[in-house]
Amino acid sequence: MTAAKPLPPFDPRAIPVLGIDSHLAGVAQQQLTPQALRQRFRHPPVWTPEHSEERKFSDRQPALAAVLLPLVMRDELTLLLTERSAQLSTHSGQIAFPGGRTDRTDHDAVDTALREAQEEISLPRESVEVLGTLPTYVTGTAFIITPVVALIRPGFELRPNPAEVADVFEVPLGYLMNPAHHRRHETEFDGVLRQWLSMPYTEPVAQGPGSASIERYIWGATAGMLRNFYRFLSA
């Protein structure tokens, strides 16, 4: 078997947009409430994940992992995301969910996700109401990830671990659950066509005459799992 070659460094923003899925209906706001999400997970629909496994580009052994999709219960639900530290060995600088590799002492994927969220950003477990999990997602670096969806009660104080997290921010869930913001990309490397989604979000960071904003470029595995969440909610 030929060894998988690592992807060369590249800027995903530089890859052209092939299309935007604005022809698909977004999830209605009445479905994006804490009670509606509780009901959806209690009585899940029949549905099929759209993204489940990336093309492999690493020879490392598969490893179990879990991430937390933390939905903060503000006036409108928001998704808490992190920007990974530039010094991390994998997916450095990328937008990600809190989470990581499963430890031997973890009871299950939920335990992994909650432990990692506490270690990475000091999200207290008592602020978290776990709703359920989504199907596993296998990254090109051979992580077998279980996404854990949870509601987060406001009032927490985050303290990001600088060794792992460069920044923490929130994105309105309604924005992410609207396919008009889902962009499709592809590029060829070593004769293999690789495809992914991006969901760029412009976050306002100042108001008034000196208003400013920052682009949060959500793509790759994070965007793939969010697309699956969209399919779950819209089924």
Q: Brief overview, please?
A:
The protein is α+β, with helices and mostly antiparallel strands.
Number of helices: 4
Return the CATH topology. Answer: Nucleoside Triphosphate Pyrophosphohydrolase
* CATH level-four homologous superfamily name: Nucleoside Triphosphate Pyrophosphohydrolase
Distance between the termini: 39 Å
Low-confidence stretches: none
Residue-averaged pLDDT: 90
Largest sheet: number of strands, sense, barrel closure: 8 strands, mixed
Can you tell me about this structure?
- By secondary structure, the protein is α+β, with helices and mostly antiparallel strands.
- It has one domain (19-234): Nucleoside Triphosphate Pyrophosphohydrolase (Alpha-Beta Complex), CATH 3.90.79.10.
- It has 4 helices and 13 strands.
- Strands 2, 3, 4, 5, 6, 7, 8 and 9 form an 8-stranded mixed β-sheet that branches.
- A hairpin with a 4-residue loop joins β7 (137-138) and β8 (143-152).
- It is globular.
Defining traits:
8-stranded mixed sheet, Nucleoside Triphosphate Pyrophosphohydrolase, 235 residues, 3-stranded antiparallel sheet, alpha+beta
Lay out the secondary structure.
Elements: E1 19-20, H1 34-42, E2 63-72, E3 78-84, E4 95-96, E5 99-101, H2 109-121, E6 128-133, E7 137-138, E8 143-152, E9 165-172, H3 173-176, E10 183-189, E11 192-198, E12 201-206, E13 212-216, H4 220-234
Parallel strand pairs: 2-8
Antiparallel strand pairs: 1-10, 2-3, 2-5, 3-4, 3-9, 6-8, 7-8, 10-11, 12-13
